[in-house]
Structures
1.
Amino acid sequence: MTAGSAQQGPYHGAVKGWLTVVAALIAIMVLVGGATRLTESGLSIVEWKPVTGTLPPLNATQWEQAFEGYKAIPQYRELNAGMSLSEFKTIFWWEWSHRLLGRVIGAVYLLPFLYFLWRGAFGAELKKRLWVIFALGALQGAVGWWMVASGLTHRTEVSQYRLATHLMLALIIFASIVWTLRQMSGRPQLAVPGRLKFTGVALLALTFIQLYFGALVAGLRAGKVYNTWPEIDGALIPSAARLWFETPWWRNLFDNTLTVQFEHRMTAYALLILAVVHAIDAMRLRGGGAVVGGAWALVVAIVLQAVLGILTLLHQVPIDLALAHQAVAIVVLTLAVLQTERLVARRAAHDRQELVLPLGQPG
């Protein structure tokens, strides 16, 4: 049975609907995580209790205990000394909501997954992919706490390295699900030139690089400085002495706020240029309506993302613009994944893998 015929299986639509819901929840999770960071709420819960932590404080004594835990970390002492219990509750609810949503995503993924496994609904290829995604999701919970722990002893915020790792893992899981959904469509492979495939893959890779740099900007609060455009630090290209003053030199790429913001800007320009070149090539090389449309949709999304990024910077990162910028980043990633899968996935008849099996056929 081929991937195309698998579409006739009774579980095909249910599996696609389930994965679509999971992907949507992950996108929401990323935005809630962004709001948690922007409101400086991420360190308000100083313990990791995967099961009992599902419940928030239920009485005055429990609220005081939670508040006392927060008072013991550097962020409270150095940034929020004198905060009232009411103010603490505001940041607590953001972090608690973020963690609760993570647990909800775990349940929404795991329970239907086990049911579909029991019913023998997956082919071998899909089963393997979904186990990998499950493992990455389990790892994400541990990475989240690893990130939070970096801000509980010697810092007033979490490590930008760990923040970027946490975000990128979430986006890798999201992209994996989108890719899988696209492959479940069963569309035939498109005959496109190798150059289009190369630029499609390059666009996806550069999108992930840009998202990583954006996470570093967020972790360093680099968007709150150098709030001019197109100049940065008084010039289109800052002086080398300002960009590379830390040693060893490579630390500037991750720790120097000027260098991190500059590389984020330059990668955005490169991404836009590559997307336009890819779209023009798709038209010139007659890549087909889906490829051309996908290419120009990606260009439009990247332009919108760049405009939102500039506005966010000029206004010193207000939460509404910052979250809009993050939301469109997810759209850009989605379109880049769809375009790349459209160009490079192999669907020749002898290469098709079983995805969703008919009722009663073992995987």
Note: DSSP finds 13 helices and no strands in the chain.
2.
Amino acid sequence: MLFMPALVGPDSSPNMLSCRNQPVLSDPKILLRPWVDSDASSLVDAYSDPDIQRWNMRAMNDIDEARSWIRSWRAQWSADSDAGWAIITDSGEVAGSVSLRTVHSPSSSAQISYWLRPAMRGSGLAVQAVETVSAWAFGTANFQRLWLTHSVHNHASCAVAHRAHYLQEGTLRRYMLHADGWHDVHLHARIAATESGHG
């Protein structure tokens, strides 16, 4: 087998997540914590919403499926592939989800995703959650680039991306298959902050 040495090494540790316990993230306005088994009923209720099903392209039909989904996050953190947090209200309810997906250590990058339950939309919680996870990813975990995609028809997700300082970099044509066919998607991204402010 031919071996060709790399001239540029990865910018970060290959263990970007598993080198630490998954943190609880908070500021005066928001609390993000790892998913726990008692969130299962809230997840089943959330995934009964047509918009969450439409844009996430999946359903969650019962408590057992929800618990399996919750357990999968723990395994993915240990595997340095994905990280998920529940967005929690002041009253302790699950408001939604924010996640780092497809973590790629060699490029110090990951995809960010989010959703809110219907009653929580318009509250600014999604923007706060994205900004909070982004600050942790850039400041503590040494990510250099975070990105997200959404259907061009998902105007609410686009608004969150812009308000969280994710610049729109372009449109990927026929990139995502939804129930009604292939959608073009917007690509947004942030890079690690510099002295000038947001990346």
Note: DSSP finds five helices and eight strands in the chain.
